[in-house]
Design a protein that fits this description.
With about 160 residues, the protein is mainly alpha-helical. It has nine helices and no strands. The chain starts with 7 loop residues before the first helix and ends with a helix.
Length: about 160
């Protein structure tokens, strides 16, 4: 699936990131849940679940949402999604480690390493590129950098004036 700035799920996630940046976590969480509720295909469900997980403080809930994001990401045949696998598996491993489940933590770290060995992402932002954008986390895929840049350069595509 191609990036579509008029996609409502994408808009909601960008608005949620912007709201996080304004230190309004409860409002951001509502936007991410709204994105999840409106997601109509595997790509949208992957993105929305990822952002719900990213926003969770409770480790079991975060793990549930990360595994949901991974389940939908695995169904999508898209390089941008494939490039997110190392980060997803790493975050899942962190959750298992926090829960004291070392076997599943190790398994997911191995999956993160094996999926990172052959990155499918060809750019325009290459792995390791640093970005100084509000809400950006270095383990996020370049897709999220693109979302932020497009939202800032073309806000009329993402935010309604009403």
């Amino acid at each position: 699936m191609e990036f579509n700035p008029s996609n409502n799920v994408i808009k909601l996630c960008v608005q949620g990131m912007d709201t996080e940046g304004k230190n309004k976590p409860e409002d951001a969480g509502r936007l991410f849940i709204q994105a999840w509720n409106e997601a109509a295909n595997d790509f949208e469900k992957y993105i929305a679940a990822y952002y719900v997980a990213r926003h969770e403080d409770d480790v079991p809930d975060k793990l549930k949402w990360l595994e949901t994001a991974l389940r939908f990401a695995l169904r999508v045949n898209n390089e941008a999604v494939t490039s997110a696998f190392p980060g997803l598996y790493s975050k899942i491993a962190e959750c298992y480690e926090d829960l004291g489940d070392t076997d599943n933590a190790k398994k997911n770290l191995e999956l993160a390493n094996s999926s990172a060995a052959d990155p499918s992402d060809k750019g325009p932002f290459y792995h390791g590129t640093k970005a100084d954008l509000p809400g950006w986390r270095s383990s996020d895929s370049w897709v999220w950098v693109e979302l932020q840049i497009r939202a800032r350069n073309e806000p009329h595509l993402f935010y309604s004036s009403g």
